[in-house]
């Protein structure tokens, strides 16, 4: 399955385009199937309808765990590094992983969870989070992980959208020097979630929490009662594996649905090839299981490859900015995968935090989630990789399930800021505004993919039309990513950022419409407009223009209210970095907000606002420019 040279990459790529079915079936053969597929692929991007490994039967956890047991029962699957530094690491071998997953799966069964039921997971970054995903998959339940930083309201919306039956949660989370309550947030959310029957509560922080009799159960007590054997439920290749909510330009977050067979094949293949993982190496991805990176490259990809990984509960800055390097040194990490926002923050902290640690175990450095600026790339390459480790800038999305464009470590020549070349099986195209494909090199356009890869999203939960309209209708016949992209003279791809109304804050996707709707729930605000602006550490920050007429409150008070409102409706990750109180917004005569102008003002480009003659009231712009903070 692993490519070893650039020539092999070219050969594999060629074959994947000319004979995609033969290419992917050769790879799929390497997994354990309860029944082989009849056909490899049926697809159209019109409805869309994509099916891989049709009628194949399998269980992904047999491939993640059971398949490795004859050789790896005693091999460490996960080292757990707690939030608090200096704690002994908890080691989980493949055998222990098997037993923990089976026991938890049996708890779910005892709660009445059946194949196809949805289970919400709202947990901190502890091994039980990974066990939870796998326990669901073991019995064919569909997991829907909600990032622990989301508010009760967001949690409630997500639980209700996919009518989850059970919540797996914790009393709270340790995060740096803070203890963050989680169970109270779940209690608040569940006030209006009629589908939830049972809640399993992990004792992590030890805070006293409310336990509702008949609904809430103590994790350890339940798990300890169960057998460490649980027959894996037979799943069809196309049965859903999970739902993960993600933000877009409009409306509420969508539940992206991934299916089982194709996702398994692609996450394993991409993990092995991008990172060039070799047996006995230690791999560490710093993401949270609440995001897709935690699904594909903490849980499924590495386990499918039989890897040994680190799970980290904490944050890069606790107890100080040397924590990542301390962990690399402690576990002799060989492959390290993080986000540009963390790299920039650690760069800003200075080299004194890097120097005390031995980083010589490192072989590969990865980046994900947002464009990596050249300065951060160079800092990472020089000071962390000591100019010996390739930096793999991996481009992908929640919807793509796995990495689509990236160097293969030590195989593809890297170039700072470039995700470089597509993985075998991935056919990117650039299109102009009208949807014409732009051929040749040295060009720029909107990034689309013209052929299905095995882990492409299958639908958006409960609303297939939304999936079609969002991803397959802008440019008929193509999957539209929402990203702008340049293909340089060497045919290398550089992602330039979102071309829609999505902001990428510290690698987290936030829809401007979502933030606006949260702000508009604030009593004093009548209307708002939100745009992104360049931010030194976060990549992009959130800039909110808010109309607040006739209020007796001070601007400071109102701004505080706005922040509280966003905290309550979405969560702290969507809090605006800057709020400007205005008396009007620049609108066209047809009432459309001209975001282009607001973006320019937020970026500080006030002398280059472009044509404002079509505005209903050009004076508004003058006032906004004057009031810019
Ligand atoms: O804009 C791209 C950016 O993150 C978006 C996907 O966000 P999400 O679904 O949350 O998944 C993040 C983790 C895969 C993309 O549309 N993005 C992701 N990786 C990169 C990137 N932008 C530039 N370079 C990357 N390597």
Commentary on this structure:
The chain has two domains: 6-485, ANL, N-terminal domain (Rossmann fold), CATH 3.40.50; 506-628, GMP Synthetase, Chain A, domain 3, CATH 3.30.300.30. The protein contains 19 helices and 31 strands. It is globular. The chain starts with 5 loop residues before the first helix and ends with a helix. The relative contact order is 0.10. The model has no long low-confidence stretch (mean pLDDT 97). Bound molecules: adenosine-5'-monophosphate-propyl ester (PRX). Residues 246, 292-293, 368-371, 393-398, 419, 481-483, 495, 498, 504, 509 line the site of adenosine-5'-monophosphate-propyl ester. Adenosine-5'-monophosphate-propyl ester binds next to α11, β20, β25 and β26.
**Rg from Cα:** 24 Å
What ligand species are in this complex? adenosine-5'-monophosphate-propyl ester
Poorly predicted regions are: none
Mean pLDDT: 97
Q: Please give the CATH class of the largest domain.
A: Alpha Beta
Structural class designation: alpha/beta
- Count of alpha and pi helical runs: 19
What is the end-to-end distance? 54 Å
Count of structural domains: 2
Main beta sheet: 8 strands, mixed
Gross morphology: globular
- Helix percent reads 25-40%
Classify the fold: give the CATH topology of the largest domain. Answer: Rossmann fold
Assigned CATH architecture of the largest domain? 3-Layer(aba) Sandwich
């Amino acid at each position: 399955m692993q490519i070893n040279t650039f020539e092999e990459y070219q050969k594999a790529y060629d074959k994947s385009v000319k004979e995609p079915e033969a290419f992917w079936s050769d790879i799929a053969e390497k997994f354990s199937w309860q029944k082989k597929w009849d056909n490899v692929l049926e697809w159209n991007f019109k409805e869309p309808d994509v099916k891989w490994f049709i009628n194949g039967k399998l269980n992904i956890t047999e491939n993640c765990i059971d398949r490795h047991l004859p050789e790896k029962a005693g091999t460490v699957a996960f080292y757990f590094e707690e939030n608090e530094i200096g704690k002994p690491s908890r080691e989980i071998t493949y055998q222990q992983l098997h037993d923990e997953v089976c026991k938890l799966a049996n708890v779910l069964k005892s709660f009445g969870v059946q194949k196809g039921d949805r289970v919400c997971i709202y947990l901190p970054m502890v091994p039980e989070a990974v066990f939870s995903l796998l326990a669901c998959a073991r019995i064919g339940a569909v997991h829907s992980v909600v990032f622990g930083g989301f508010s009760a309201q967001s949690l409630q919306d997500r639980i209700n959208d996919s009518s989850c039956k059970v919540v797996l949660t914790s009393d709270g989370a340790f995060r740096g020097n803070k203890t963050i309550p989680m169970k109270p947030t779940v209690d608040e959310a569940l006030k209006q979630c009629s589908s939830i029957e049972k809640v399993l509560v992990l004792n992590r922080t030890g805070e006293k929490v409310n336990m509702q009799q008949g609904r809430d159960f103590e994790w350890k007590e339940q798990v300890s009662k169960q057998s460490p054997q649980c027959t894996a439920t037979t799943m069809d290749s196309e049965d859903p594996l999970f739902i993960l909510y993600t933000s877009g330009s409009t409306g509420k977050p969508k539940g992206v649905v991934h299916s089982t067979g194709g996702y398994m094949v692609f996450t394993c293949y991409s993990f092995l090839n991008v990172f060039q993982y070799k047996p006995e190496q230690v791999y560490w991805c710093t993401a949270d299981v609440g995001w897709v990176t935690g699904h594909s490259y903490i849980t499924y990809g590495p386990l499918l490859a039989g890897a040994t990984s680190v799970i980290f509960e904490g944050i890069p800055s606790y107890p100080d900015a040397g924590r990542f390097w301390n962990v690399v040194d402690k576990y002799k990490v060989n492959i390290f995968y993080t986000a540009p926002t963390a790299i920039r923050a650690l760069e800003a902290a200075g080299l004194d935090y890097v120097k005390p640690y031995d980083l010589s175990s490192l072989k590969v450095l990865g980046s994900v989630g947002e464009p990596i600026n050249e300065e951060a790339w160079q800092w990472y390459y020089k000071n962390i990789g000591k100019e010996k480790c390739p930096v793999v800038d991996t481009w992908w999305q929640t919807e793509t399930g796995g990495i689509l464009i990236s160097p293969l470590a030590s195989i593809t020549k890297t170039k700072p800021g470039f995700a470089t070349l597509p993985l075998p099986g991935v056919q990117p195209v650039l299109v102009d505004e009208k949807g014409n494909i732009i051929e040749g090199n040295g060009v720029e356009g909107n990034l689309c993919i013209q052929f299905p890869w095995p882990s492409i999203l299958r639908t958006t939960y409960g609303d297939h039309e939304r999936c079609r309209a969002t991803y397959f209708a802008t440019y008929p016949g193509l999957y539209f990513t929402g990203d702008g992209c340049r293909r340089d003279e060497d045919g290398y791809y550089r992602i330039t950022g979102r071309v829609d109304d999505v902001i990428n804050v510290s690698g987290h996707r936030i829809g401007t419409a979502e933030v606006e709707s949260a702000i508009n729930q604030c009593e004093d605000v009548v209307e708002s407009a939100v745009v992104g602006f360049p931010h030194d550490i976060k990549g992009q920050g959130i800039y909110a223009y808010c109309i607040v007429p006739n209020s007796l409150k001070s601007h400071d008070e109102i701004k505080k209210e706005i922040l509280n409102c966003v905290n309550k409706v979405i969560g702290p990750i969507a809090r605006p970095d800057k709020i400007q109180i205005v008396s009007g917004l620049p609108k066209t005569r047809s009432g459309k907000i001209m975001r282009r102008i607001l973006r320019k003002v937020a970026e500080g480009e006030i002398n280059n606002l472009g044509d404002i003659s079509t505005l209903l009231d050009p004076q508004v712009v003058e006032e906004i420019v004057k009031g810019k903070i």
